């Protein structure tokens, strides 16, 4: 589903590589944690998959497509196969929950009938049924993140990328979010989650890829946050 | 569905930046009006030049009792022998068209004078005998007057040689200067309008950066993201261009068709044909001025 082949990324005007010779393969339906300290290259890794960045060397494949050879006008259609969730939720404050989720479908040209059918379904799935008319500032942090996940998942993407989705949430709420991501993963969606949250990684016992200073220092199935002792 | 969303976004953008939109419309209006006026003035000068240059003839005034010159015997009319020499010199010049030499005697000159000064106090001030005889000379090519003028200027009996082009040329060069002034002024204003549109779009893009970020994230096409911005600037440009076209139309109707054409019939005047062409040019320039800065700005701010 996602494959990095000898990928290096050096930002303009910098000597040090943000990613150096990374080789990673993530299969369809996997749940993968991406861990590492700040500046270790996690964000660069995710942005390469979204093709917000291009690799300096090597090839990134997403859903069988070589992103280096992908024309920039094809990037939007590639991104429709990837759902994205961020630490800061990125909801539109002047739209309701329903409208926030519907917006993602509107702008890729889905019909009103489809939107009215699919949005309540996905709100139900993330546990927000009945809250479609609320505005984001009327919701708790956990609920806002659920809206963001609903928006990322409403188009049934093959890949869900989550960049510190629990970074702004308390531990109890985080557990709920992780259960939701796990449920989405069981529906055969590949989930790639960058995180600092040691408890979550240790509890979930999923594959862990650890980056340090741009290098993959560990790739372990059923791993924990620190080195397993 | 898609289109409704795009129009709603464009409308929201126009309302959000109402003052900027008005500034763009007014700048567009004034600059495009000036631009169109420059085009029309150029057409008019072209027409007038063509008509006047066709009529240009050289007038060789002969000595008379009343007016003296370097080649005249004071107080005497040009003699018949002198007239024959002058006529032959003119007729043998290759630049003079066949049958292009016409002699105007005192009687004809007096009738012309009376016609020109009818009702004027000067009308009765001169007698027929005081009129000046002249040769009117038509040229094959009005540009080539210099040789003909110099061939007769020094002949005895010639009081003065007048060439209309000598009078018209300074006039046309002034009009030319004025035209270029108009065009340069309108170019500067158009540049200001284009920059203003770029700025307005930048403001809108900034106001909508959250939406745009999400649109990019969920895979909205570039075209879909750019279209509201394009519509927003094209709508303001079209309003400005429409006002400019109206201004040009009103100007041509009230100044040229109602006034100038009626009172100055000796000139060729531009009509609706040239006006419609100028309006079309104004419309095209207006749309280009909206589309180009918008695309440049959105490329910069909405890059994937």
UniProtKB/TrEMBL annotation, chain A:
Q: What is the similarity comment for this entry? A: Belongs to the ABC transporter superfamily.
Taxonomy, superkingdom: Bacteria
Specify the protein name: Cell division ATP-binding protein FtsE
The subunit field of the Swiss-Prot or TrEMBL record says: Homodimer. Forms a membrane-associated complex with FtsX.
> Which NCBIfam families does this one have?
FtsE
Q: Where is this gene product found?
A: Cell membrane
Q: Does the keyword ATP-binding apply?
A: yes
This protein's membrane topology, according to the annotation, is: Peripheral membrane protein
Q: Name one GO biological process term.
A: cell division
Q: Which cellular component appears as one GO term in the record? A: plasma membrane
What is the gene called? ftsE
From TrEMBL, chain B:
Topological relation to the membrane, as annotated? Multi-pass membrane protein
Highest taxon of the lineage: Bacteria
> Among its keywords, does the record have Transcription regulation?
no
Q: Which InterPro entries match?
A: ABC3_permease_C, FtsX, FtsX_actino, FtsX_ECD
Spans traversing the lipid bilayer:
21-41, 177-201, 213-231, 237-256, 276-296
Pfam families reported in the protein's UniProt record: FtsX, FtsX_ECD
Compartment(s) of residence: Cell membrane
Q: Which UniProt keywords apply?
A: Cell cycle, Cell division, Cell membrane, Membrane, Transmembrane, Transmembrane helix
Q: Which GO terms describe its biological process?
A: cell division
- Asked whether the keyword Cell cycle is assigned, the reply is yes
Limits of the ABC3 transporter permease C-terminal domain: 183-303
Q: Which GO terms describe its cellular component?
A: plasma membrane
Residues of the FtsX extracellular domain: 56-161
Q: Which family does it belong to?
A: Belongs to the ABC-4 integral membrane protein family. FtsX subfamily.
Matching PANTHER family, A to Z? CELL DIVISION PROTEIN FTSX (PTHR47755:SF1)
Q: Which NCBIfam families match?
A: FtsX_actino (NF038346)
Function (record text): Part of the ABC transporter FtsEX involved in cellular division.
Tell me how this protein assembles: Forms a membrane-associated complex with FtsE.
Report what the protein is called. Cell division protein FtsX
């Amino acid at each position: 589903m996602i494959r990095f082949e000898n990928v290096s990324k050096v930002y303009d005007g910098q000597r040090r590589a943000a990613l150096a010779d990374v080789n990673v393969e993530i299969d369809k339906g996997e749940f993968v944690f991406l861990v590492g300290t700040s500046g270790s290259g996690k964000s660069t890794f995710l942005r390469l998959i979204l093709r917000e960045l291009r690799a300096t060397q090597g090839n990134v494949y997403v859903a069988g497509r070589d992103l280096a050879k992908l024309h920039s006008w094809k990037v939007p259609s590639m991104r429709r196969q990837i759902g994205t969730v961020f630490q800061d939720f990125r909801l539109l404050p002047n739209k309701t929950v329903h409208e926030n989720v519907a917006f993602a479908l509107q702008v890729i040209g889905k019909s009103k009938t489809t939107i009215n059918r699919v949005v309540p379904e996905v709100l139900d799935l993330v546990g927000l049924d009945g809250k479609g008319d609320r505005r984001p500032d009327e919701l708790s942090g956990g609920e806002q993140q659920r809206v963001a996940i609903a928006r990322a998942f409403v188009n049934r993407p093959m890949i869900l990328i989550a960049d510190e989705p629990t970074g702004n949430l308390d531990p109890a709420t985080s557990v709920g979010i992780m259960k939701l991501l796990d449920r989405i993963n069981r529906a055969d969606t590949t989930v790639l989650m960058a995180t600092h949250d040691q408890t979550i990684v240790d509890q979930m016992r999923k594959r862990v890829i650890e980056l340090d200073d741009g290098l993959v220092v560990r790739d372990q199935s059923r791993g924990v946050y620190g080195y397993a002792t | 569905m898609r289109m409704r969303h795009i129009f709603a976004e464009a409308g929201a953008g126009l309302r959000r930046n109402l003052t900027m939109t008005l500034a763009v419309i007014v700048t567009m209006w004034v600059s495009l009006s000036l631009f169109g006026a420059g085009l029309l003035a150029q057409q008019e000068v072209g027409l007038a030049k063509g008509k006047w240059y066709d009529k240009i003839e050289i007038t060789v005034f002969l000595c008379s009792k009343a007016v003296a010159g370097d080649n005249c015997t004071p107080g005497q009319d040009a003699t018949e022998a002198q007239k024959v020499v002058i006529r032959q010199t003119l007729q043998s010049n290759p630049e003079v068209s066949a049958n292009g030499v016409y002699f105007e005697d005192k009687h004809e000159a007096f009738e012309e004078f009376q016609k020109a000064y009818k009702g004027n106090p000067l009308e009765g001030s001169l007698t027929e005998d005081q009129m000046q005889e002249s040769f009117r000379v038509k040229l094959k090519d009005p540009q080539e007057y210099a040789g003909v003028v110099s061939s007769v200027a020094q002949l005895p009996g010639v009081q003065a040689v007048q060439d209309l082009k000598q009078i018209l040329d300074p006039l046309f060069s002034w009009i030319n200067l004025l035209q270029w002034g108009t065009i340069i002024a309108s170019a500067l204003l158009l540049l200001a309008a284009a920059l203003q549109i770029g700025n307005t779009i930048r403001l809108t893009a900034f106001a909508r950066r959250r939406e745009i970020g999400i649109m990019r994230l969920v895979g909205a096409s570039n075209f879909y993201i750019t279209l509201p911005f394009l519509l927003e600037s094209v709508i303001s440009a079209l309003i400005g261009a429409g006002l400019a076209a109206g201004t040009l139309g009103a100007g041509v109707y009230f100044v040229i068709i109602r006034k100038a054409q009626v009172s100055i019939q000796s000139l060729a005047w531009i009509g609706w044909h040239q006006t419609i062409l100028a309006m079309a040019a104004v419309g095209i320039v207006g749309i280009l001025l909206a589309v180009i800065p918008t695309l440049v700005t959105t490329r910069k701010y909405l890059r994937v």
